[in-house]
Fold these 3 entries.
Entry 1:
Amino acid sequence: MEIASSLFARIYLGRFSLLLVSITLSFALRPFLEGLVRLNILTDIFLSVILLSAIHTVSEKRSTFFIGLALALPCLILKWSDYLIDSPLSWNLADVFGALFIAHALISIWSFIDRQQEVTTEVITAAVCGYLLLGFMWAFIYFFLECAQPGSFQIAQHGASDQNCFIYFSFVTLTTLGYGDTIPLSNAGRSLAILEAVMGQTLPYRHHRPARRCVSFSEARKTGCLKPFTNKAIIRCTKQDHLVFEAITELDALFLRSNPPLNYQTMEFLQTVNNHVFILNSTTGQILGNSKLYILNFPEIIPETHVSRDPSRLRKIIDDFGGAMVVKPLQRFGGEGVIKVSTRDRMNLNSLIHYYVRAYESYARREPIMVQEYLKSVKQDGDIRILLLNGEIIGAMRRKPKKGDFRTNVHAGGEVFAHRVTARERQICQVIKEKLIADGLYFVGIDIIAGKLVEVNCVSPGGIPRINRLNNDRIESKVIDFIEKKVSTISQVPHRELA
């Protein structure tokens, strides 16, 4: 089941690319195939391929998929049955169903684009597909009008009025080139041509927007509106050396995200403004939970785990355990430095332990490390990353290691898959919920392997964009809503002190 869902996810993520390739090939190959196949048949072949590819683009939800199928199949059946039964009614109905299906596909594509917060390759591909599909939709409409009211258009090419001519006219009109070799004569034809030209010019502006919006809470509260910044503006801001804010207390909220280890001097400084600025996660909580030691607060739900800086003791722990164990540096991230060890490789084991703890240093200056039971299921099943907000689950995904590795971290090459949270995983979240909230760890990512908690990430929990893509969700909005709610509960101080 997991393999099937993985395969579907890969195909699904490329649904716009498939459509774009189909449309591009229809334009590129047509001139070279005209002598081999009748033009009408060639046009219908390409239109059929485009419609089938477009069905794939509306497979985002089951409801949109079945609606698309109900509109596209009659169009295809009527179009090809016309070669057996020459009926004007089948032409007209095929055009009606074709136009309705493409309109449905366009709504699905534009809805997808509007939900995205970043301009990715997929978003750009979707926008291009939407623009090109618009040309095909109007071609169906023009052909239907000509069939219903013959003489609505004057076509220079030997008076022909097949669908190929209207595809050409539609795209010329959409781009407002207007060569004049096909002219709408009836009022209906002219009105439709004007409407298409207007849509062709306004739609690119409709979808031209900043990649992401970031809310300034102070500005929103003072003016009643949101102040937008683009990603580039934020990056530019963080790279500047000069003062950005006169005082930290000018902010309503501060979302701390940086890779371990913590800068403790920064934490000490921010601790002084905790009563004035909502900090996510709290400075105290990050100090308590920034290393891998935090899971020791929950001994009943974690695998066998030991921490030491003494090489002899670490060697004895591994020998007594008898099986494979995982060595983890306490302050690293992304799977960096995580290795599997066992007594089978005794020659390298001593060297590895001495290297990790820096045994050449005095005892006080050595680096403590964690050794944890190796859970074999990680090799095949991977681990589960669950994002918690105020102790509640807001999203989850499965991560599997790449071939030849056991680390599931995306930075280490792990793959992500959709996941439905199990009863056991919910139980683990309930066990740690109270402690997390008490420590001010409101937004965390936890990792679970084989029903056991192996890590709590509170400094830089990742996964929101990937979970959003897998589940077609926008869980970041829940985080922002939570921050706004917390900000509103902070007592208003008449005159904030500068910090």
Entry 2:
Amino acid sequence: MGPQRAVAAVSAITSVHTVRADYRASDGDLVERAREGEHGAFDALFDRHYGRVYGFAFRLTHSAADSEDIAQQAFVRAYGALSRIEDGQALLRWLYRVVVNLVRDRAKRQARKPWVSFWDLRPRPAEGGSAAEPPEFADPGLDPHGIALREARSRALDRAIARLPLDQREVIALHHLEGMEVREISALLGVPEGTVKSRLGRARQRLREDLAEWLDEETTS
């Protein structure tokens, strides 16, 4: 199911009117108006956040079909739970939590995992590393060797992340790809901040070990 069909499916559930909500309104205002029966308000929320929800699901599953289905399900659940969403401004975090739960439910059927920058795996000052700036790599452009190297590196990273437990993949995606702080991830997943830090640390260490050869090559290139 593509994004256009997902829009149509959610629109059918909300029985969308032709009058659209003010897209400049805050999430909190739109959630409140959707609770009061203004269907265009939920449409505005869907249009505003579908891309990010889909993107987050894709980073966890690496499957376009699964991600579209999961994103659609998340919004359907949000519509059904409008009366129970206490903080409308936190809707996106609520949707992320639903995505995490849906992905966990499908975890045994998933084979592809999220992507994270190699540079993010390097030791940080707090972990005993230096505070060096990320190196500037030449754009491989149309250079066949550069393109092949980049693709091989990405495949190696995919395989390494595929071996991580799901709880570690979740924090890697939320922190490195969604840019969320540890405290935000803690609230979203419902675990202590120390647990988030521990999972991030273990995940980075495992990836460094699996990708040592590639990381060394980047250092010397």
Entry 3:
Amino acid sequence: MKFRSTTHRLPTLAGTFHICGAGAPVFCRLTRSKGSKPATCRRSGLVVLLSALLVLQAPAASFVTTGSLNTARQYHTATLLPNGKVLVAGGYNGAYLSSAELYDPAIGAWAPTGALAAMRELHTATLLPDGKVLATGGYTNPPSGEVASSELYDIGLGFAAASQPQIATCTSPLALGSSLALTGSGFRGLAEGSCGGTQDSPGDYPLVQLRSLEGGQSLFLLATNWQTNAFNSAPVGGLPPGYALATAFVNGSFSTGSVVNVSVPFPTTTTLTGAKWLTNGAFQLTFTNSAGTLFGVLAATNPLVPLSEWTLLSGVTEMSPGQFQFTDPQATNTARLYRIRSL
């Protein structure tokens, strides 16, 4: 749509103006607002008011030239993808084609993409809810003739495979409290980040995530050492035992995930490092053991009662790798006995 003005000069008008409806051409009469009554428009033909006229004219539909296909073709399919690009696949140009191309409207150009496994024309291409494209049926070289096979086109991750980090091996099983070690390629970024200040500390190390497959809990690991083909993390803690997915992120692209079995380490001899009453009346004790071990505390007032009659208390927290703390908010000034046991 565009506006075309007449040769009449438009005087300055006070108040609010409105442009009425669609259509071509539309002639609007502009009137001055009176008090709180808004200005109005009329679409009843050519009206000249105060020597002013505006015409809203819809331009004629037309085609403009854009980028050409790399391979001329007919009887192909064209599918609009969720990212706004257009996928053209297969067809015929004197020979049956399996090639495919992507049109990028942002730059008006076509680029080759993954080819069909089977040459085909007059086939169908259907965009599926997950963003993939199903190509099926069609016709190909005799004597094969009609094609029964189907194929799925996956648009991929949207970045070059050369920039994607690759995990070859990882520590599994991974005991809580130990370090995760990865080997592979592409673990260093292509560039470091900086704001240009003298106090900047840019780095090119990867982000490595562990995500529990059962509960979805995730943890980004601190790096202690990294190279292009290796990564070592600080001790891992705070994840539940079970299977987790390790993924490396570098320059905005991410690796294929590797499954890690997160396990609980075997406890060693517990060493009591502190015991005290807190100002709120609670009792607190601290101890050391294998990092990542899960502990509970049993409590009783009579050491002679069977172990089955001791009360299991929660509240043991690993404050740092191998350093544990237990707080009993229900403690009283009467004698109470505690036993620490692994879970």
